[in-house]
Specification:
Elements lengths: L4 H35 L4 H15 L2 H22 L8 H19 L6 H12 L10 H8 L5
Helix pairs in contact: 3-4
Length: 150
């Protein structure tokens, strides 16, 4: 079975169009949802707080899901392409298989690590107690402490 040059060009373009259409539809639905919630009286802070709480509960689970799906797709491609015999086309299945396994490996290696947002918040809380100016002289310090400083 041979594909014409037009089919070789049109099939990837059609797939790209479907993916971009899905992304556009997804963003439009999210926009409509936000507008509807704003009409009900929810503020942007409420919506962001709920999204951040869900992200904290989920953690790195998205990496695991993506890794398992990528690895299983690669395994299916590998099994399907292996019916053609040994050859370079098996890379089409091996590559997503090992990328997916790498993502699963990343998930298990970072399972005990807190998400980045909590680390940044902790760093900001530590910096909140720092002095505004580290170059304060002793006379300025005595003036700031007042006469009852001991």
């Amino acid at each position: 079975m041979t594909l014409s040059p037009y089919a070789i060009i049109l099939i990837p373009c059609a797939l790209l169009l479907v993916v971009l259409g899905f992304v556009t539809l997804n963003r439009y639905i999210a926009y409509k949802e936000r507008v509807a919630l704003a009409r009900l009286g929810f503020s942007l802070e409420d919506l962001n707080r709920d999204r951040d709480a869900a992200a904290k509960r989920q953690g790195h689970r998205g990496v695991l899901w993506g890794g398992v799906m990528t690895a299983m797709s690669g395994l299916a491609l590998l099994l399907g392409l292996s019916t053609l015999g040994m050859g370079a086309w098996l890379i089409g299945g091996l590559l997503p298989l090992f990328v997916g396994l790498g993502m699963v490996f990343i998930y298990f290696n970072t399972a005990g690590v807190a998400p980045d947002s909590t680390v940044r918040q902790g760093a900001l809380q530590e910096d909140a107690g720092a002095e505004a100016s580290p170059f304060v002289t002793q006379s300025e310090e005595a003036a700031n402490d007042g006469p009852n400083a001991g």
